[in-house]
């Protein structure tokens, strides 16, 4: 498939796909005229890359981890790295849950003290 079709099927911009290639996250065959052609498996690979980015991993880290993630091949060092990345994701999830809980408490408190037309800021007069 061509780059535009891959972009449409994955919801990722053509520019992002080109960046993935530059970072060695994705590869394409080139036609004699220089057009990129991707295998069907590129759809799943792009979705995986997006998930790993969403988890907070850098492109450099993703490149290093990709053999283990895609092919199941892993050295002890790579498994250790994957475990560390997972712990990092767990910490982010915990932090986000705490932030959500704090927002819930602010919303509840503000709802209990709601005054029509008032803002959360107190006006001061000099």
UniProtKB/TrEMBL annotation:
Arranged from A to Z, the UniProt key words for this protein are: DNA-binding
Quote any Pfam family the record assigns: MerR_1
Tell me the superkingdom of the source: Bacteria
Q: Which residues form the HTH merR-type domain?
A: 1-68
Protein name, per record:
MerR family transcriptional regulator
CDD domains in the record: HTH_MerR-like_sg3 (cd01282)
């Amino acid at each position: 498939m061509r780059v535009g079709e891959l972009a449409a099927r994955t919801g990722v911009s053509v520019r992002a796909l080109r960046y993935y290639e530059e970072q060695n996250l994705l590869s394409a065959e080139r036609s004699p005229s220089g057009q990129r052609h991707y295998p069907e498996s590129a759809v799943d690979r792009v979705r995986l890359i997006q998930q790993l980015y969403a988890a907070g991993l850098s492109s450099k880290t993703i490149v290093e981890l990709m053999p283990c993630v895609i092919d199941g091949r892993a050295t002890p060092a790579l498994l250790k790295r994957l475990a560390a990345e997972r712990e990092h994701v767990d910490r982010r999830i915990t932090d986000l849950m705490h932030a959500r809980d704090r927002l819930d408490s602010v919303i509840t408190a503000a709802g209990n003290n709601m005054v029509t037309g008032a803002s959360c800021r107190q006006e001061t007069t000099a």
